[in-house]
Each structure stands twice: as C-alpha cells, then as structure tokens.
Specification:
Length: 279
Amino acid sequence: MLSPDSKRRAINHIIDTLDYSVRRACKIVGMSRSTFLRSKLKQTSSDPDKKLRADLRDYSACRPTHGFRRAHAYLTRDVGMEINVKKVQRLWREEGLSRKTPTKQARKGKRTSPMVKAVRPNHVWSIDFQFDVTRDGRPVKIASMIDEFTRESLLDVVERNIDANELARALTRVFAERGTPEVLRMDNGPEFVSKRLARLCGDRIGMFFIEPGTPWNNGFVESFNNFRRRECLRRHDFANIVEAREIITEFHRDYNYHHRHSSLGYLTPREFAQQQVAG
C-alpha cells in the first residue's frame, strides 16, 4: 500500500512521462484530485509544528549522530515539552533527518597466494589467536600456529598482549628452527594484515587471508583452538601469566608428542612428521 507521498510522486511521474491529465493520473493511482492538489500543511504558514520542526533541525545539526529517540528525550526532559515519541519520529522522518550510521569497513589483507590444500610438511601453516584470563581478570593472549599437513603445534607465545612486532619475532624464531612454509593461512586481524608481517613474509612466503566472518576457512587452527580450550584452558584457573605460560607450553608439547589423531591413523603429530621425513 502506497503512502500519500508515494502516490503524489507516482502521479507526477505519470503526468511528466505519459503526458496524462491530472484527473486521469489521479484515477490510475487511486488518489482524489482535490487531495493531490491540496498543499501539504507543513508547506503552509499555518503549520502548527513549524517551531518543533525547526527545533528538531537545530538539534540534528548540533548532534548529527543522534536519532529521533534521543531528540524526544531532549524535548521532554530538557525542554519540558509534552510530546509523543511517534510524532517526533514522523517529523524527524519528514524533515529528512534520518541517516544511516556509517560503519567501519572491515580491513582485508592482500593475498599473495591462492587457496591451497596442504599436501606435504611445511606446505601450509595456519595461524590464529585465542584468549583467556588469569584469576585477576586480566587477559591472556595465545598465538596458535599449526602445520596443516602434520597437525604439529609450532608456536608457543603466551602473553598479556601480542602485537605485530612480537608476532614477527616469534615467527622468525620458528622459521630459523624449522624453515619457512610455502603459505601462511590467517584471518584479517590487525596483527596479520600489518606491514610488519608483510615485510617478514616478503616474496618467499605466500599469505592467504580468509574472507571476514568465515572462520571455517581456517578450520585446522580453529579445531586446535577448540581442543586446547576443552582440554587445557577450561581445566585450569591461571593465577598469573607465568603460570599460564608454563601450563599452555606444556600442553603444546604433550599435544605434539602424545595426542593421537584419527585423521593421521592414530599417530601423534610428531610421529607423523617423522614418518614423512623418513619417506
């Protein structure tokens, strides 16, 4: 069902494009000719809401991010006016004061590698962060990295905060011990899309960023995070960051050497990696 304003626009469109008379256009749209020709009350000097409209325009100009509900609260509580919120909403809309709140565009990393499936050790490593808290409520940030082929846990970084520089230093140590992967798979977190990590990877390591809001595209490390949450984080109440670091590091070692994967034929990640090296 069309509103009166929509009907007026339709009638004007019919008159302009088809050169119909006002009478014929009104009949087609279903609005009486007298209603169409009558000036809207707000366009006349006898508009009873003229001052209120001006007040709303002034309020919107001073507070451009506020909506009609805050304007209604201002009128009733600060000005002392008795007015229905629905009337404020109608006048707010008629004055064209409604506007969409701008949303921040999600930042996406620049891919330097296509999506690939790991087919050998050191082919694709996936990386992510996981969070927990110590007993005093302060955050614990854990960097996770998995070799998608061998399922080995490759990173032991547990800190209060891990920025791009700290992450790059940790990755440099892993690269020195194990060599570099062909592809790093990650989400679009600020540490991952940073220039610091891009410089570290350079032309030797491909960077594949999953689409925002699709954690299933980073399924290997997400599965590892869920396992660590279930088997470690939920079972411990960390007194401080030192205790958290010791327990989580020990969990990673136990995972690599003793956790048997059904997808690896019930070998541990380290046994499977050694089997691949032996050929």
